[in-house]
Amino acid sequence: MRPVTDSPPARAWLVMGRRPGWKQGLASSLPRLAGTATPRSRVARRSSIRKVCDCISITFAFVLAPDDRQVASRQGLPGSDECGSYPVAFVRRAIRPSPLCASAPSLVISAVCGFGWFRRRTYRMTSPSAPDTQLSLAIDPARPYARLTLGSHVHSGYDLRSGRMQSISRHRAALAFIYAGEAVSGRPGSEPREAQRRIERRPAHEQEYRETLRRLGFKPATRRSDALEESAGEMFELPGDNAWLHFMQDDLPRLRQQGWFIDIRADFAYDLTPIDAWYAEVEEADDRQWFELELGIQVAGQRVSLLPALTELIRRSPALLDPRALARHADEEQLVLRLELNPPLRVALPFGRLKPVLAALSDFYLGDPEPQRKLRLGAPDAARLADLDELPLAWEGGDNLRDFARRLRSFQARPATPPQGLRAELRPYQLEGLSWMQTLRELDSGGVLADDMGLGKTLQSLAHVLLEKQAGRLDTPALVVMPTSLIPNWLDEAERFAPDLRVLALHGTGRRRDFARIDEHDLVLTTYALLPRDAAELGKRRFHLLILDEAQNIKNATTKAAVAARELAARHRLCLTGTPLENHLGELWSLFHFLMPGWLGDARQFAQDYRTPIEKHGDEARLSHLAARLRPFLLRRTKEQVASELPPKSEFTQFVELSEAQRELYETVRLALDRKVREEIARRGLARSRIVILEALLKLRQVCCDTRLLQRHEDGARSGRALSSGKLAYLLDMLDELIAEGRRVLLFSQFTSMLALIEDALRQRGVDYVLLTGETRDRRAPVQRFQSGKVPVFLISLKAGGVGLNLTAADTVIHYDPWWNPAVENQASDRAYRIGQDKPVFVYRLIARGTVEEKIQHLQQEKAALADGLFSEGNGDGWKLDEADIDALFAPLPKAL
Questions:
Q1: Are 458 and 523 in a shared domain?
Q2: Are 527 and 508 in contact (CB under 8 A)?
Q3: Hey, CA dihedral for 95, 100, 104, 107, is it positive or negative?
């Protein structure tokens, strides 16, 4: 309808239904309304009026009554109310009784009625079907108002990318135009004709409504959907969730203000309820082994946990837990979540808040989660609470756990000061390791120090224990469990670097009487072999610190040693190993099962969550997830990483314990040779007995290497039965670790027969190697194979390969049986350490503890001139031995540890 203007009014038809006295009323009213009358044309085709008067303008004003109906107002019109007052609605230029929307504006219409002389003959009209009379007036159409209907439809479909059935939603907006209570849609001319009703539509106005939707991002829907019935109107759609959310939150309120009628169906997915607040509730168990977490919102006056709805959503769309997929969502994007309340509600969660929640749930929900109001979690999972701490949540409870989570999230080792009395200058990376161990102690957490071999894991541990003692925290001893062969090394390094520590080695048959003295010491040493036997006695105490050296010894969690280690009570736990992972991830799980039970779940859960996805399917996301979870508790530095902190060549002495068979043979040979040497000295004098002394020392050195080298022994190689060798066993374990680290090894021995025994052992283990001895004719071939990286181990006889070779591919040198002239040893080591070497070189000397090998080493340090003269190939001018030196060289073995 348009308001009255000065322009000529449009022609209209006036038709009145039957009512008592309607003809008389019309006859009396029209002259007063029309003024003058001149016959001109016919007015109504079904009227008794045949003649019409000159066209006149009549103005009808329709106003909103208190009962929300529009009624004709006669104010200002001449005459009385003979024609009556009727509630009306405008439909296609017709007028009929109908209640209108209360928000529809009052309408003013303009109509022209022609009146003429009345004919004597009148038109017979049938009685109306409605009980009330109806006034239909063909008029200029009013401006339509828009009705927008919103609906959704959800169905299941197969997603090719994920290979799973997923819920698929379709959303539609239907546009219709309301003319006096009647809805039409589509282009004009398509609506059906009805008796005594005709609608003249306003295409221009309808197009304005369409353009409004297009400006808001809507496009005509090209595919059929069950979201709305076709009769709802012209179908439109938006490109995605964010567009729908933006429309509902920003654009829809403006459309309502502009007079649009909005019809939101109950199933529409974006009919949102505003969120009043967010909350998090933590309930911590008394033993601090677990806690319960609830995350939720305040909405519509209710406190609602989000976890059941999020869990169900994750089950349907697992990609929500993918960090890469999450990162693609902008913080302002929103996720619509349906809350199963009565009645159900939908809320929009911004990804800026949702990302930390889903990141935390990715830890908790690696498997197939079950919807639940609260999560029951192990204490290690508290680390993820730090991700939630940044959100504007109202926290309830869990202050201790949240503090732990914050410290762990911003994990950075607090700089530690080396303890007083430590007789070593810690390199920067070693000081970092000490600081890391101190920080773990503050967090009541365990850790794995996984530095490469030779970077000083033992020294860092001793510094840590000494610092704990000086701080007054070492009120009970620290216990270190290690392979038997490492007992001498720990004793030596403790005495050398931390003499203030009181050290007790629980080893050997006499160890039981030392149990009562444990509390008198700061550091107690035992072995993996003895731990299961002594578990009952050790289990009576609570140690301040429990350290597993060469912790790969418990890589099988079901071994007696692993079980016994887990059962020991200690405030803090540490693992030392250069190879925390050798064969599979289960070995790493075993270490953390000892350190922090539950951190990686049980074995079955760990296999399901990590081992199978990573090892069988190459799941990099799970690998990254596991690495992130372990990062604060695993410190590993390779030699390449700390090369700038190391000298160009580092040298280490590794003490090895003889096997029982070696000890027996060593003592037998030593007694015989001691008599022979003393008899020779008595007969010829010390200076002229040199050859006999060297021959005796050579035989003792062979026993230190392997009993099979001394063929005269009746149970030795001549009989074909190999006796055990502590040094060979130590070497093979050492090579396993070095090769696992990717190291390239030169192995020197004076005895080619010893190299043959090592060859046999390497073949049995499937280790590739090359060999160079005096009998090797083509020296270039093994050198080229090693330098090209085809083999990790090069076996070299000291005499044949000690000079003339360039082996810069090596970064490790092992002297299996050290040459007594240090200059010869240095020349051999320089095969790797020479011009062209771009890696740090590490030199290891294997020394049988308590034997002639150790005695000679002491002589090298204390009497360099004597050692040089004794073992030089010159004339022996420096040879100056006395009776005390002979006594030391041929002294009995110390008591076994």
A1: yes
A2: no
A3: positive
Q: Reply yes or no on whether the pLDDT at 504 is more than 90.
A: yes
150 and 81, same domain (yes or no): no
Q: What is the 3-state secondary structure (H, E, C) of 305-337?
A: ECHHHHHHHHHHCHHHHCHHHHHCCCCCCEEEE
Q: Judge whether 454 and 650 are in contact, CB under 8 Å.
A: yes
Predicted confidence (pLDDT) at residue 33 exceeds the cutoff of 50: no
Give 385-401 pLDDT, tens digit per residue. 766 766 777 777 767 76
Question: Residues 809, 786: contact at Cβ < 8 Å?
Answer: yes
Cβ pair 346, 336 in contact under 8 A: yes
Q: Which residue has the tokens 């539609």?
A: 172
Q: Which helix (H) or strand (E) holds 543?
A: strand 542-549
CATH at residue 604? 3.40.50.10810
Query: What is the number of structural domains in the chain?
Result: 5
Q: Are residues 228 and 123 in the same domain?
A: no
pLDDT tens per residue, range 41-92: 333 333 333 333 333 334 445 555 555 455 555 444 444 333 333 333 333 3
* Co-location of 257 and 319 in the same domain: no
Distance from C-alpha of 716 to C-alpha of 720, rounded to nearest angstrom: 7
The answer to whether 621 and 629 are in contact (CB under 8 A) is no
Tokens 């299941």 found at:
156
Please tell me the distance from the alpha carbon of residue 55 to that of residue 82, in angstroms, as a whole number: 22
Locus of tokens 């040199």: 690
Question: Residue 455: what residue type?
Answer: L
pLDDT the model gives residue 14: 35
Element at 150 (helix H, strand E)? strand 145-159
Domain match, 739 and 623 both: no
- Over its C-alpha atoms, the chain yields an Rg (Å, rounded) of 49
What length does the chain have?
897
In a domain, 58, yes or no: yes
Distant-in-sequence, close-in-space partners of 172: CB < 8 Å, separation ≥ 6 = 150, 151, 152, 221, 225, 227, 228, 235, 236, 237
H-run or E-run covering 110: strand 107-113
Residue 531 in domain: yes
> Is the bond preceding residue 343 a cis peptide, omega within 30 degrees?
yes
Name the phi and psi angles at 570, rounded to 5. Answer: -155, 145
**Does 512 share its domain with 626?**
yes
Residues forming beta bridges with residue 303, ordered by sequence position: 298
Residue type, 883: E
DSSP 8-state symbol, 833? S
Beta bridge partners of 96: 89
Q: Does residue 420 form part of some domain?
A: no
Q: What angle do CA 197, 203, 209 make, to 5 degrees?
A: 115
**Between 457-470 and 487-497, two packed helices, what is the crossing angle to 10 degrees?**
50
- How many Cβ atoms sit within 10 Å of the Cβ of residue 113? 20
Give me 293's structure tokens.
């977490």
CATH number at residue 738: 3.40.50.300
- Which has the closest alpha carbon to 848: 652, 651, 657, 653? 657
Beta pairing partners, 252: none
Instruction: Specify whether 574 is located in the same domain as 512.
Output: yes
CA nearest neighbour of 622 among 287, 246, 322, 196: 322
Domain coverage including residue 590: 428-635
Strand bridging mode 234-237 / 164-179: antiparallel
- This prediction's pTM: 0.55
As a three-state string, the secondary structure of 642-680 is CHHHCCCEEEEEEEECCCHHHHHHHHHHHHHHHHHHHHH
Is the CB of residue 896 less than 8 Å from the CB of residue 659? no
